[in-house]
Amino acid sequence: MFPFPHPHQLHVSLVIFVPVVCAIHMAPAAAVAGVGSEEGAPALLRLLQRVQSEALRALGPRDFDPKFYVDLPLAADASAVGAALSSLTRPALSREVMEAFISRYFAPAGSDLVAADPLDFEDEPRGFLPKVENAEARAWALEVHALWKDLARRVAPDVVARPDRHTILPLPGRVVVPGSRFREVYYWDSYWVVRGLLVSKMYDTAKDITLNLVYFAEKYGFVLNGARSYYTNRSQPPLLSSMVLDIYMATGDMVFLKRAFPSLLKEYSFWMSDIHNVAIMDNHGRVHNLSRYQAMWNKPRPESATIDEEFASKLTSTAAKEKFYHQVASTAESGWDFSSRWMRDSTDMTTLATSHIIPVDLNTFILKMEQDIAFFAELIGENTVSESFSEASNARYNAIESVLWNSDMEQWLDYWLPTDGNGQVLTKDISLMSYNVIVSNGANTLILLT
Ligand SMILES: *[C@@H]1O[C@H](CO)[C@@H](O)[C@H](O)[C@H]1NC(C)=O
Ligand SMILES: *[C@@H]1O[C@H](CO)[C@@H](O)[C@H](O)[C@H]1NC(C)=O
């Protein structure tokens, strides 16, 4: 489905519970064929990134938010904006010149979405939090409930009319945004939004939001990290099936379920593709499928390019920079962003190794996805599909128990792949098998295993 990266399965022998003291240097890698700059949408992104770096130069790093610039809707055609940018006097662009250029050629950030009154909003819905009796707590809960009105949006008509002027992606339904500098829909944030909307009895809004994500799966084959053209090369913790399940349980809406179902199968294929699936052999010779995060990107993230480039500046080779950018984007896919959980050296961002880690939470989400799909398939009479997803979930359960469970610590631990994976089958050679494991709750307990 994706031209990238080259298919490879890691065959990794695994020996658990033999402590050694041995730090490792894992080669951060994964072959990433980066070609983003040749595609259509990236022309706009390239222009906005030029604006972003000129703005950094003119305004200075203090309170600088690179995302602001790639979110700006163009008020003129890209060619006119590009020419105007080129004609600004260099090298010393003043703050005044920069600000005048921005207000002349761009519409305000956030104007690509317009307010949308959620029709299913009621000031105090029937059956709202029946167990909350305390008057003060109820009043506060109703205040929180009222925030839906501030966060509900719809894509502005101009986005559909002139998509070449906007990085926001046109979504069919209403959206609820996280707010402040996050002016667009996000994937796993939407899970919590949906849970909240169900508490607020706003079933239609919850369905709209979920169907927007279904639209992504239909269009791109997976659910994007968020609704911007700079989020098309990574996903986020896969919780679409959980949203569908929670909505189905609250409403019993079979039409909605059937509408979403094919997209869940599509999304599952994405997570089972070579990008994310890793075959791991345990020390009994059994091969397990487990999943990792891995973005399809090896350049600075456009929304944080100036920051990513700053970190990469201490790396000397282009290859090392690309590997770092690949890990940064993969870490964004994890939804955790820049926790020391993903770093070989917790004080050094450039040691991010996310795509070499089999995370407990991701595999638990996918296990749940498999169980949810098995349940939905049974409901709609697809019994063969249901059985195969039940089997897949049982296999993943065993994989999690075999590879991630540490009985000494009575804890599931992330598994660090001991190699960058170019298809070689590792032996149980101790020197090849050294790896470290960081507990999955992000605390920095280093356990050394071979
Ligand atoms: C980025 O994503 C787009 C759309 O999903 C795809 O067409 C493109 O090939 C991807 N780029 C890379 C470098 O994989
Ligand atoms: C692992 O995935 C491969 C490819 O999808 C599949 O053929 C194989 O049966 C799976 N193995 C297990 C143990 O689930």
From TrEMBL:
Q: Which Pfam families match?
A: Trehalase
- Please indicate if the UniProt record lists Signal as a keyword: yes
Q: Do you know which InterPro entries this protein is assigned to?
A: Glyco_hydro_37
What broad taxonomic lineage does this protein's source fall under?
Eukaryota, Viridiplantae, Streptophyta, Embryophyta, Tracheophyta
**Protein name as catalogued:** Alpha,alpha-trehalose glucohydrolase
The record lists the organism as: Zizania palustris (Northern wild rice)
Sorted UniProt keywords: Signal
Kindly list the GO molecular function terms attached to this UniProt entry: alpha,alpha-trehalase activity
A GO BP entry is: trehalose catabolic process
Q: Which positions carry the signal peptide feature in this UniProt record?
A: 1-23
